[in-house]
């Protein structure tokens, strides 16, 4: 189930990135875009703010990562911030104190599985980066 969730999350993030790409490419001259109708700003220190910070960190890391032209290496390097974002979001949920049994189990599973996958990716990179 966690693997399917990871694949689904990756697909959603990729779709969002492709759809949002042209909007980010436009020069808005420093003007802030109005918030969507009904959108709220996450309160500082709130879980929602932590979720947004995790996504912003991931987006920044992935956008600034130079591509090597080596498909495996580029994939492995890009997946680390993607998985770290999932870990950070899951930990923020766990720290929220809400304790929904389904989301708590899912969050614990995500932390364990994604940290293991990050370690696998880091090991793979260390063995293959110089090739």
From TrEMBL:
<protein>
    <submittedName>
        <fullName>Uncharacterized protein (DUF305 family)</fullName>
    </submittedName>
</protein>
<feature type="signal peptide">
    <location>
        <begin position="1"/>
        <end position="25"/>
    </location>
</feature>
<feature type="domain" description="DUF305">
    <location>
        <begin position="40"/>
        <end position="124"/>
    </location>
</feature>
<dbReference type="Pfam" id="PF03713">
    <property type="entry name" value="DUF305"/>
</dbReference>
<keyword id="KW-0732">Signal</keyword>
<dbReference type="InterPro" id="IPR012347">
    <property type="entry name" value="Ferritin-like"/>
</dbReference>
<dbReference type="InterPro" id="IPR005183">
    <property type="entry name" value="DUF305_CopM-like"/>
</dbReference>
């Amino acid at each position: 189930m966690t693997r399917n969730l990871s694949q689904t999350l990756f697909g959603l993030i990729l779709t969002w990135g492709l759809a949002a790409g042209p909007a980010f490419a436009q020069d808005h001259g420093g003007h802030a875009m109005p918030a969507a109708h009904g959108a709220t700003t996450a309160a500082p220190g709130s879980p929602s703010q932590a979720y947004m910070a995790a996504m912003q960190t991931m987006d920044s890391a992935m956008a600034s990562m130079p591509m090597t032209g080596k498909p495996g290496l580029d994939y492995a390097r890009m997946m680390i911030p993607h998985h770290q974002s999932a870990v950070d979001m899951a930990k923020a949920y766990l720290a929220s104190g809400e304790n929904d049994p389904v989301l708590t189990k899912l969050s614990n599973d995500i932390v364990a599985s994604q940290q293991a996958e990050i370690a696998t990716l880091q090991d793979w990179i260390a063995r293959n980066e110089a090739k």
